[in-house]
Specification:
Elements lengths: L1 H9 L8 H17 L6 H36 L6 H31 L3 H22 L4 H20 L4 H13 L4 H20 L4 H13 L7 H23 L3 H23 L2
Helix pairs in contact: 1-4, 1-6, 2-3, 3-4, 3-11, 4-9, 5-8, 6-7, 7-10, 8-9
Length: 279
């Protein structure tokens, strides 16, 4: 559920740093991240550079205005008491930004993956399996108390970025949410296993462009279709619980927190406007 807190407050992946900073480094960050999973040939590196340049140009001109519009509505909504429908609507819209990005990326992604050799596919799948094994080892045997403590720390850190020091009542609200929400760990791990199996099948059958596109669409654009009714039901209930917690935290904001939040959102809006209108 940390992700839903991020997308609500940060409007997608432009989080944690100034968007101006992020945009200035994406052409370096993305290849670096890709290199963690697969070693590209020189021609593939060139193709990836062209994809990044094309996608960033599209994103800056087409997506950032949508982020800015969303941010303006968010800032208007938080200037008055919040309700569950409003918070959930912002969460849903933020997710739409994320999935729309992947949908636009798909044709380029299909072409790049189809250029992979069998050795590159094996390298990527081995790293994905390693990551998944590490996640299972980290979380499977973690006690409830440790999970709550970890989640509390993450959420408090996220909120402090926007509000500053939290009050005891706000920290208690975070603890209450993390202690009483559905424990979806087993369902999440099963979903990850299913996701990896679909991705492995797609990579091994990458010569079939239609199949590869269908599988990547399922995995990246419509992943809820893979999650199963029980998992989805618990996710949705946790999302409503999170919305109620955020409403309470918002209602208990101090004047100092309100000033800080508005300043952070004003700065984010200024950064987005700069990027949109940059030559």
């Amino acid at each position: 559920m940390k992700r839903w807190l991020w997308v609500l407050l940060l409007l997608g992946f432009l989080a944690g740093c100034s968007p101006r900073f992020v945009y200035g480094w994406l052409d370096w960050i993305i290849p670096w991240e890709v290199d963690d999973y697969v070693s590209l040939s020189r021609s593939q590196e060139g193709a990836l550079d062209r994809i990044i340049e094309r996608q960033l140009r599209w994103h800056r001109h087409n997506e950032l205005p949508l982020y800015l519009s969303h941010l303006e509505r968010l800032q208007s909504d938080i200037s008055k008491p919040l309700d569950e429908a409003t918070v959930l609507a912002h969460m849903s819209e933020a997710s739409d930004h994320w999935y729309r990005l992947f949908e636009h990326l798909l044709p380029d992604l299909v072409g790049l993956i189809q250029s992979f050799s069998d050795e590159q596919v094996a390298e990527m799948l081995a790293q994905i399996e390693k990551d998944n094994a590490e996640l299972r080892e980290r979380y499977e045997d973690m006690t409830l108390e440790k999970r709550v403590k970890r989640a509390n720390k993450q959420m408090e850190k996220s909120l402090k970025k926007w509000l500053g020091r939290l009050t005891p009542a706000q920290r208690a609200e975070i603890d209450d949410y993390n202690r009483n929400r559905h424990n979806t760990l087993a369902l999440w791990l099963a979903y990850r296993r299913d996701w990896i199996e679909h991705f492995s099948h797609a990579l091994r059958q990458r010569a079939d462009g239609d199949l590869l596109k269908r599988e990547l669409t399922l995995l990246l654009v419509t992943p809820d279709e893979l999650k199963g009714q029980q998992y989805l039901s618990q996710i949705q209930d946790n999302r409503r619980r999170l919305a109620q917690g955020l409403i309470t935290i918002h209602a208990e904001m101090t004047s100092r927190q309100t000033r800080k939040l508005n300043k952070e959102l004003d700065d984010l809006q200024e950064d987005l406007e700069y990027l949109i209108h940059r030559d």
